[in-house]
Amino acid sequence: MKTTSQLSPQASLVNPAKEDTLHFRKVNNLVGWGVFVISLFTYAATVEPTASFWDVGEFIAAAYKLQVPHPPGAPFFLLLGRMFSFFALGDVTQVAYWVNMMSVLASAFTVLFTFWIITLLGRKALKIQGDEITLSQTILLMGAGAIGALAFTFSDSFWFSAVEAEVYAMSSFFTAFVVWAMFKWERIEDESAANRWLIFIAYMVGLSIGVHLLNLVTLPALALVYYFKKYKPTFWGGVAAMAVGGFILILINNGIIPGLPTLAGKFEIFFVNSIGMPFGSGIAIFLILFLAALIYGIRYSIQKQNALLNTIMLSLTFILIGYCSYAMVLVRANYNPPINENNPKDLLGFVYYLKREQYGDRPLLVGYDYTVDVVGYERGEPLYRQGKDRYEIYDYNSRPVYDPNARKMLLPRLHSRQDNHAALYREQLNIPEGKQPTMGDNFKFLMTYQLGHMYWRYFMWNFAGKVSDMESAGWLKPFESGKNLPEQLAENRGRNQFFMLPFILGLLGMFYHYSKDRGDFLVVVLLFFLTGMALVLYLNSPPVEPRERDYIYVGSYWAFAIWIGLGVMAIAELLGNFIKNNKVRPTVATLLCLAVPGVMAAKGWDDHDRSNRYYSVDSARNLLNSCAPNAILFTGGDNDTFPLWYVQEVEGFRTDVRVCNLSLLGTHWYIEQMKRKVYQSEALPISLTLDQYIAGKNDQIPYVERVKDPINLVEYIRLVKEDSEVIKVPLQSGEKINSLPSNTLALPVDTEAVKKMGFVPEDMQDLLSNQMVWNVTKGSLFKPDLIILDMLVTNQWKRPIYFSSTLAPSSYLNLREFMQVEGLAYRLLPVKVPGATQSFVNSDIMYENMMKKMYWREVDNPKVYYDENYRQRSFVNVRLSFSRLADQLINEGKKDKAKDVLLHCLKVIPDKSVPYDEVSASIIQPLLQVGEKKKAMEMADIMSKRADENLNYYLSGENANRREIQANLYVLNQIVTSFKSENETEAAKKYEAIFAKQYGKLQ
Questions:
Q1: pTM, whole model, 2 decimals?
Q2: pLDDT value at position 359?
Q3: Please, are residues 759 and 753 in contact by the beta-carbon 8 Å criterion?
Q4: How far, in Å, CA of 733 to CA of 381, rounded?
Q5: What DSSP string describes 346-401?
Q6: Residue 756: in which H helix or E strand, if any?
């Protein structure tokens, strides 16, 4: 049998006269499954046992009861998640674990197919034909496949997604599977058998749509594989092939996914509104015509014996079959489950859901920068809703109109006008306020932030090393050691030093691949680019994100892991100058390169191990247990809401509390859901009807002062319901909208009825008055604000109303002086405590809640890893709550109870598992006040030492970090103030010396 290699004569691994052959397929399968077992064990050992933060809680809750999560949904993912939930065997507390295990299994299969892709590419690089090859080649290919696949197994971003129920793990599986299938197809000579593989690939692409759209990005690269097999490659031929792949990508992403439902919707509106046919007739006619055209095309291709057309038509059919998983969205939305985002119960709502229109869009090729004014809005496509016998227009999509004299930019990167984004652009690029950014500024932001900070930094996290798990952490250079680092960084579990070994091996593999097989090299380059830098250009990130986004680019890291595997072959070739034995050389290369996945596993295990971590769910329990029975609880972002959805929907915990997400309360479909009973919670007291809060109505109510005195809130809500002209003001377009005549509101209070309800403490009843008066805003009311005000009027204090303590200040409607702290939530009362701008504490209720109703599973376990999201966003808030309760108890003369609270806080959230943060400094003075001087000194010593170390590091010049400098100076100042206030002069001097030394460095 002829077996040749492209290696140099010195490095040749082929000696057919002397070497025995093995059945390569068996070995390839055996080693591949071995790598699968390693990755499966890794992820199963480190999987999170319950619902983690961000989207996972929503996905698990939606999967468990087949509900409708945020657009564009992931119906196939949810269907599989529902199947995995059966393994819980009725134990609802185990549902999250088993749905997480779905990602574990998908990730392990991703690693398996990555192994097989590397061995396929390696065989092509060695120009091997057939299944039987030499032993030395087998050893080399097995080593390459194992090293590359294991490097991807232990890569930072992929490992993160592999142990939680998010869509990215399964999306990676579909990507790896489809690419592997395409390379398998390439090896098949029989045309009919090969075409079956293409149809199978199309079906898998269709299924992947029901998980995540990232898989579609690989299509231009797969088109190259098809081109290289079918045609003699040329430069322009390759360009044409990529263009065809891009066209197929656009066809599926824009034509099939939203396009077909959109076209069906137009048929429906035409046949119902124009011809007068019944609802559903247009959709039925469209489906009949479309299916008839599809069947005709398949039949025509058979009649004409046109194999290419037949393959195309069947591939389209199977893509659509896979895409049919989205039927679940329509079916379940019509049952109106508790989680039913966008309520896409009809075709028109379904199209809106698929297009993710609620998120808006970002300019890509040409657009305006953040300084260009919006001078108005033009009317776009009409939005329909089902009326009595026809579809009625209730609003229009509006598009902003910009200053016509303004300059446009190519690749507009500085586009966002949200929040404080303009200030961040100026800060990052040193642009003076009032000056328009240049094209150079635009390009600089692209290179330094979007490509540098939001891609290259993440890439190097995976293949070079990571400074820490702190927000905006950089990547580690190989010469950066752990010496002279503060404890905060030196002992940070997220600090992973890979010495750039994976990066270097990947570069060697890349150059090796280029030298051996430029066609496949171009395919992998295209995969690497399309799933990485091309996504950066498409997503056009704003200057700040709510969290790190490295998981988006896992496909790019996966492509690089292929080159890491091929790097083993490059090492073997280099060793040819030193080791002549053909069997020893690949073995040595493999053993040397094992250091790459080895160091990645050793360094990455501690910060990817989520076993025994429960606090994401326990935080939801604690927030719900801060509320009285039958409460209404207003929450904000994902981490405020999704764990609550999970614990109520899956574990059935405190379903009497109605969670009301303020981010969604501006949508009419969510308000409609809030107006119905769910589980033990009655409908929310909302008196406004759909006509007052449908999209486009009362989205923003401007403050236009027309009266100086407070306006009666009951009367104002009545005027809104009546759509009265009294409160309307004209716009430039001539349209009239509701306004707010005064920014001071007055809500009448039936004090006798309130007293009988018994929720106002006796010692505060003297503060009751016949009306609540407060200044609500100086800008505008938004729809969520209007709904909250309506509930205040309608509720009449019958149901407790709470606001989560983690909400943004603007979400409290300036009502903090009327809010009572009862744990991790603030209860609104018809009682004002002047000056209580951070609310007032009810020590009796809060003590009962914080000491007896909270869950702290494994929080005191130093082996459990809590990343910065837990440390800085969750436990800071909890420690602050304990501190506030202790302060209040001390003020009331209840020092024994205050002492219990402080010691309980230090017990359940100890420094050994969750290191002290800035808020912890506020616990020192109460400890002194209750006679726990020793504990106070221990805390002060630990915190001052760390602050001193941190400031030595961050004030050294090259490591400057303004936020860390401010935080650590605050800690030192708080410690000094605490001891001074309690007349502990000697201790105060000791810590003041440290503060003075560090503060002096700033002068």
A1: 0.91
A2: 64
A3: no
A4: 18
A5: SHHHHHHHHTTGGG-----SEE--TTSPEEEEEEEEEEEEE-SSSEEEEEEEEEEE
A6: helix 751-757
